[in-house]
Amino acid sequence: MSFSTKHALRLALVTTAALSMAACASKPKPGPGVGPGPGPGYPSQPGPGPGMGNVVPGSIQDFVVNIGDRVYFDFDQYDIRSDAGPVLDAQSQWLMRYPSVQVRIEGNADERGTREYNLALGARRANSVREYLVSRGVSPARISTVSFGKERPIDPGTSEDAYQRNRNGHTAITGGAR
């Protein structure tokens, strides 16, 4: 058995990532807004809004408006929350109905923690969403994942509400929609 430089580098990267995650891992202090519900103002499954009656079935707009393209995570967690299950079930059913659609699951984190830690956490969140969709019958070949860590916040605020919105998995349609 040889131990190449490539293996040593890979081991060093994995160790660094694990140490970064361990250094940042802490239990959140209970407080207002930290809980199982979706972030304020961000329903887990949005309904049609005003003027949305002309949504083309199978379109990106159909997916976003009628299904919901984002699920949220608790602080420092990547497990699928109970309120995310119905959204992801609806996503999987929609994707099964439109088999030519390709998606990219984007894992996001709030601004706390190091860049490296948040990239790793975002990757785990994206993979959790991907595994959920695959377990519901969506072909893994149709799903790619990416982690944006804390680089693409949907709320630039620094409140707990903003942090909740930014801890999410976003399902972006990348092709095949009408």
UniProtKB/TrEMBL annotation:
The record, for PROSITE patterns, names: OMPA_1, OMPA_2, PROKAR_LIPOPROTEIN
Q: Which cell locations does it reside in?
A: Cell outer membrane
What's an example Gene Ontology biological process for this entry? cell division
Q: Compositional bias (Pro residues) at which positions? A: 29-49
Q: Principal place where this protein is found?
A: membrane
List the residue ranges of the region (Disordered): 28-55, 149-178
Gene Ontology CC annotations of this record? cell outer membrane
InterPro entries (alphabetical)? Bact_OuterMem_StrucFunc (IPR050330), OMP_bac (IPR006664), OmpA-like (IPR006665), OMPA-like_CS (IPR006690), OmpA-like_sf (IPR036737), Pal (IPR039001), Pal_lipo_C (IPR014169)
Q: Give all residue intervals belonging to the OmpA-like domain.
A: 60-177
Tell me the keywords, alphabetical order. Cell cycle, Cell division, Cell outer membrane, Lipoprotein, Membrane, Palmitate, Signal
Q: Could you say which residues form the signal peptide?
A: 1-22
Give the way it sits in the membrane. Lipid-anchor
Q: How does it assemble?
A: The Tol-Pal system is composed of five core proteins: the inner membrane proteins TolA, TolQ and TolR, the periplasmic protein TolB and the outer membrane protein Pal. They form a network linking the inner and outer membranes and the peptidoglycan layer.
| Function according to Swiss-Prot or TrEMBL | Part of the Tol-Pal system, which plays a role in outer membrane invagination during cell division and is important for maintaining outer membrane integrity.
State the family it belongs to: Belongs to the Pal lipoprotein family.
Q: What is this protein called?
A: Peptidoglycan-associated lipoprotein
Q: Recite the lineage of the species.
A: Bacteria, Pseudomonadati, Pseudomonadota, Alphaproteobacteria, Caulobacterales
